[in-house]
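U., I forgot to send this yesterday:
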Amino acid sequence: MMKLINFTPIVDKLYAYLYLGEYWLFNADLKKAEESVEDLEDFFEQSQGIPKRYSLMVNMAKTELEMMKRFNSNM
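Result:
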């Protein structure tokens, strides 16, 4: 039987970075949102225990930030 590795606390921290970025986007603070997304990306790259499939979440956060920057620059 395969032993499962418990990586829940690491993934929880990854989600905390994600939700913080979402909070700043919701409040239209693009500077702080960008900092949060950079922190999310750095944490993901430096953490050894996060499965690679979570990179999709990081990429989606970066894409959302770029979309919001473009939407706000057109207003």
